[in-house]
Amino acid sequence: MAIFAFMFFKLFIASVPLAQGLVREGTVQAGPVATIPLDKQYVPVIRNEKIVSYKTAYFGKIHIGVARQQTFTVVFDTGSAHLFVPSATCPSPACTRHRQFYRNMSDSAIDLDHDGNPVKKNATRRDQVNIAFGTGEVTGEFVRETVCLTPGAMETPRKDCTELRVILASEMTKEPFMTFEFDGVLGLGLASLAVDPEFSFFGQMSKMNGLTEQTFGYFLSRSDKVPSEISFGGHDKRRLASDLQWVPVHKPELGYWQLKLVGVIVAGERLPLCEEGDCVAIADTGTSLLGAPRAVTQRMHWLLARKVPENPAEIDCRTFPGPELIFELEAGVNVTIGAEDYSRATGMRVLNNKTNTSQLICRASLLPVDDGEVLGPKAFILGEPALRKYYTAYDWKRQRIGFGLSIQPNPEEYEDIEPQHSIYGAPPSGPPVPTEVMV
Ligand SMILES: *[C@@H]1O[C@H](CO)[C@@H](O)[C@H](O)[C@H]1NC(C)=O
Ligand SMILES: *[C@@H]1O[C@H](CO)[C@@H](O)[C@H](O)[C@H]1NC(C)=O
Ligand SMILES: *[C@@H]1O[C@H](CO)[C@@H](O)[C@H](O)[C@H]1NC(C)=O
Ligand SMILES: *[C@@H]1O[C@H](CO)[C@@H](O)[C@H](O)[C@H]1NC(C)=O
Ligand SMILES: *[C@@H]1O[C@H](CO)[C@@H](O)[C@H](O)[C@H]1NC(C)=O
């Protein structure tokens, strides 16, 4: 507990103006059980040999094992439901590039069959699982292990550790894992998304540790100097500008943090697709863009595109104003995204050969979501742009998501502090040069 208390204290010093301190009038404010700073990686998206945008990934440390903990970085992903890390026995380059779990260094790991029973001593083969991750795939075997959110000894019962079924990857595809810095993924999807509830990290933690607040909270920072954070066992009130507004999860049996959309309003236009009230929005910490059904992305792009006057040589389109994109949720909650969050930073210069004129255009960055996937034809994804503007809290017990405008700490407060997080592949500072197309 000592290490955990120290870390929390350090975070507290690092990020809170004194006036909003933890101790107020002699009472200790209850807070999350653990708050983990997140590393960030930029991965360039290249088209025609030019960088057109960046994908981002956020990940933090977890610690697996009891006597000798092994540390990994994982994406805390509300869009999946299992924990996997590379196994030391995995020969794939995507495994050897990352930290690998040494099964033989752990005396707490128990090998399991797919049904959760310990593997028999005389067994000659092991059950394997395949999990698809977007463009990639992980194959692995099962163990039961203790997983902690902060490092340190297990002498007293700890609220930030839980026993869990873990997948040790024996194969990982190069795409997409080779390019990423993180070692594995820790799924935070609802239990029904998992093969078995015992795979669900937060489900296990909530159940076994008697958490008073069965929620986790997610904060994305606008400045790379300030770490993004995930909190478990409560949300971090210091990062909230307003009270949370709660929206019930729609069809929790599907396992997604999915909300019902009353409507989607793009630049004042209500999308006909959602008029029957059967569109959904999925809060997904593992997606770096806003996702929209492929059928409407073109219309949305058209409505959100802006002509930039005076043809500047360079511009960061996130600073150029534009119309609003509104996700109207149940319970009277609107998630409103402005140009600063939905824009692609890089502008597009349209050169007209006939008239010999050019026009600079700022566009939205949208991820087309294909029909026929598990999600259905009317699913939007609230990825990073929405989760940066809004702090989100995920209430496991009551199956609801809370939204509140987030407070961005002042980056200057972090200047003299030893960084708690790493940034990988940051793009050069300054506005990006527009791409050019001929018409
Ligand atoms: C543990 O396993 C790794 C490969 O999985 C092997 O290289 C290493 O020698 C083993 N260590 C011990 C102490 O058995
Ligand atoms: C393994 O041992 C169990 C009893 O401990 C026995 O029932 C089973 O048939 C054995 N399996 C094999 C493959 O030898
Ligand atoms: C949400 O946005 C819609 C469309 O702009 C508007 O009609 C509605 O009143 C808003 N609701 C709230 C609670 O602000
Ligand atoms: C544009 O016009 C120039 C001459 O003005 C010509 O060399 C070039 O091939 C044209 N490009 C396209 C894409 O039409
Ligand atoms: C087109 O405009 C550019 C600058 O605006 C000029 O340098 C170029 O000569 C023009 N080309 C034609 C074919 O008029």
Automatic annotation (TrEMBL):
SUPFAM superfamilies for the chain: Acid proteases
User: GO MF annotations for this entry?
Assistant: aspartic-type endopeptidase activity
Question: What range(s) does the Peptidase A1 domain occupy?
Answer: 58-404
Q: Which residues form the active site?
A: 77, 284
Q: Keywords on this record?
A: Aspartyl protease, Disulfide bond, Hydrolase, Protease, Signal
- What are the cysteine partners in each disulfide bond? 90-95, 317-362
Question: What Pfam families does the record tag this protein with?
Answer: Asp
Coiled-coil residues: none
Q: Is tRNA processing one of the keywords? A: no
Signal peptide segment: 1-21
Task: Give GO terms for biological process.
Answer: protein processing
Does the record carry Repeat as a key word? Answer: no
Give the transmembrane region(s). Answer: none
- Protein family: Belongs to the peptidase A1 family.
Name of the featured protein: Cathepsin E
Organism field: Cladocopium goreaui
